[in-house]
Design a protein that fits this description.
globular; alpha/beta; binds 5'-O-[(S)-butoxy(hydroxy)phosphoryl]adenosine; Rossmann fold; 19 helices; 31% helix; nine-stranded mixed beta sheet; single chain; GMP Synthetase, Chain A, domain 3; 2 domains
């Protein structure tokens, strides 16, 4: 029987989750221990924790006891080479089992784990490792070259480990880290981190400046556990699939911590998107709960209903989505082909957990994000004053009252950047929405220049800086342009230096330049060559005008910008 939203709200307190997890205030608290050792103590040692499969269909099952032992071994090894609690340790690899288990390993030795998307190119990687002062990178052969090329410019980087490098000729300071071959550490003790000890560092893009390191703490598990249980509706016998990459927050909050804190078996597919392969994977493993994203759903829709009907997906019980607005058509389609609607969930890297959502059992209004999770006070406000804008038809910026367990504690080395996110006692999400009379939130759009491509935020500044490194580029602006599948993609406006002529070859060359330096996500899908860019009087490029043109929207009042 599904518990109603009203019942969940009744007398809600986060201590409910502390009680379930056996957390006592003031005692040591370590996510790594909670997601492995504790489950073994509760009798789940032989239960599969991770069923991992790659694109060839090769699969491997790890029990909670395997996860416990291997993460202990990794933790002990990291300590044995001189890494210390508090060190930033980066995981830079595809969705290998070592990524999920290594994540717990770093936390168990008291390190701050910094997962980075393996498709990042050298510049994206360097910016984030440099900012964090990262001491070690754990990677794989396929990606080690990118680390090699930048290591000279990272004086704090002392160790590079290669998880599949055993037997290969590695270069100093690289060493092989073969999880299964590491000695069983005798008497290894999980580092006694506490609730407020930093745990995960995720880099997220804003409008200005380079990406910021969102700093989570071990106490986040309290919200991640309870939202996974109530919103994803996880139950002991579930087979859960979150198709997000742990390089992004969905892949850690709900691709590692949430499900494992609940002792749930999860499946991982280490392969790119392919509709048929995805359906086959879900049918094969009898997946019951699936956490996905609108872009993926649109890609599946594109491949048609006949394909999905070829697979027995009757095991699916609950579907959720995150990352971008879930369009009504996607909800209606999923109802048609899976017999269930996707439930939208809204949150951010900074919130650490789902904050606004359609609960299981709650009436889904297709196109709406649903209502706040119990324990979350949310509204929409005027971003300048922080005053609520909840009247009929009013739109404001989504605002949350600070203080839920998984709220980040700051941006790494950037207290000012974090302070700017608060107005009148509210944390501002940077997204515009309205609230209907039933208390449902309706997403309108971002309140800044950040580009959301396929559920991934890309910062225009990072792209513009990289564009300026190309010898032909004098000035540049990166903005979102609408896209049928990815919602938005990057478009660049470029003014060339004297002596360069715009043509298709140069466009392609610049596109590839960005793909290699940053990532395929950040690569402009098109470049418009212009003579000059719209600027304020003080010379700041006004992206808003370009963006409005792309979306066919009115430019609005720019007189204040012109006076900048
Ligand atoms: C931004 C956060 C939260 C995990 C994935 C992204 C957008 C997120 C929704 C949704 C409309 C959404 C917002 C938000 N977003 N969920 N359900 N409907 N937009 O984490 O990289 O920090 O991105 O993604 O713009 O602020 P993130």
């Amino acid at each position: 029987m599904t518990v109603t939203y009203a019942e969940r709200l009744q007398g809600f307190d986060w201590s409910l989750a502390e009680k379930d997890l056996g957390i006592r205030r003031g005692d040591p608290l370590n996510i790594g221990w909670h997601c492995s050792d504790r489950l073994c103590e509760l009798g789940l040692a032989r239960k599969p924790a991770l069923i991992w499969e790659d694109h060839t269909g090769e699969s491997h099952t790890y029990t909670f006891d395997d996860v416990r032992r291997y993460s202990d071994a990794i933790a002990a090894h990291l300590l044995s080479v001189g890494l210390k609690p508090g060190d930033r340790i980066c995981l830079f690899m595809d969705r290998l089992a070592e990524l999920y288990i290594g994540f717990l390993g770093v936390l168990k030795m008291g390190g701050i784990v910094q997962p980075l998307f393996s498709a990042f190119g050298e510049d994206s990687l360097w910016t984030r490792l440099d900012n964090a002062g990262t001491a070690a990178v754990i990677t794989q052969m396929k990606h080690v070259k990118k680390v090699r090329r930048i290591k000279e410019r990272l004086p704090q980087l002392r160790h590079i480990f290669v998880v599949d490098g055993a037997g290969q000729a590695l270069k100093a300071p690289e060493t092989a880290l073969a999880m299964r071959e590491l000695p069983r550490p005798a008497g290894f003790k999980v580092h006694p981190t506490t609730a407020e000890t930093p745990s995960v560092l995720h880099y997220t893009s804003g409008t200005t400046g380079q990406p910021k390191g969102a700093q989570h703490v071990h106490y986040s598990i309290v919200s991640q556990y309870l939202t996974a249980k109530w919103v994803l509706d996880l139950r002991p016998d579930d087979i859960y699939w979150c198709n997000a990459d742990p390089g992004w927050v969905t892949g850690t909050s709900y691709g590692i911590i949430g499900p494992w804190a609940n002792g749930v078996t999860q499946v991982v597919l280490d392969a790119g998107f392919n509709a048929e392969a995805w359906y086959r994977f879900m049918a094969k493993h009898r997946v019951t709960v699936w956490y996905s994203a609108p872009t993926a759903i649109r890609l599946l829709m594109r491949d048609g209903n006949e394909l999905v009907r070829r697979f027995d997906l009757s095991s699916l019980r609950h579907l959720c989505s995150v990352g971008e607005p879930l369009n009504a058509e996607a909800v209606i389609w999923s109802q048609e082909v899976f017999g269930k609607p996707f439930h939208d969930t809204f949150w951010q890297t900074e919130t650490g957990c789902i904050v606004i959502t359609n609960f299981p059992g709650m009436k889904v209004k297709p196109g709406s994000m649903g209502r706040p999770f119990p324990g979350i006070t949310a509204t929409v406000v005027d971003p300048a004053t922080g005053e609520p804008r909840t009247g009929p038809g009013q739109v404001g910026v989504i605002a949350l009252r600070p203080g839920w367990p998984s709220q980040i504690r700051g941006y790494w080395n950037n207290p000012e950047g974090y302070r700017k996110k608060f107005v009148n006692g509210w944390y501002l999400c940077g997204d515009r929405a309205s609230i209907d009379p039933d208390g449902y939130f309706w997403f309108v759009g971002r309140d800044d220049d950040v580009i959301n491509t396929g559920g991934h935020l890309v910062g225009p500044f990072e792209i513009e800086s990289a564009l300026l490194e190309h010898p032909a580029v004098a000035e540049s602006a990166a903005v979102a342009t609408p896209d049928k599948v990815n919602m938005e993609v990057v478009k660049a406006f470029v003014a060339l230096k004297p002596g360069y002529e715009p043509d298709d070859d140069l466009e392609l060359e610049i596109m590839n330049f960005i793909r290699k330096k940053l990532s395929p996500l950040a690569m402009p899908q098109s470049i418009e060559f212009v003579d000059s860019l719209p600027k304020t009087r003080s010379g700041k490029i006004i992206r808003r005008i370009l963006r409005a043109q792309e979306f066919g929207e009115p430019v609005g009042d720019i007189s204040t910008l012109m006076n900048d």
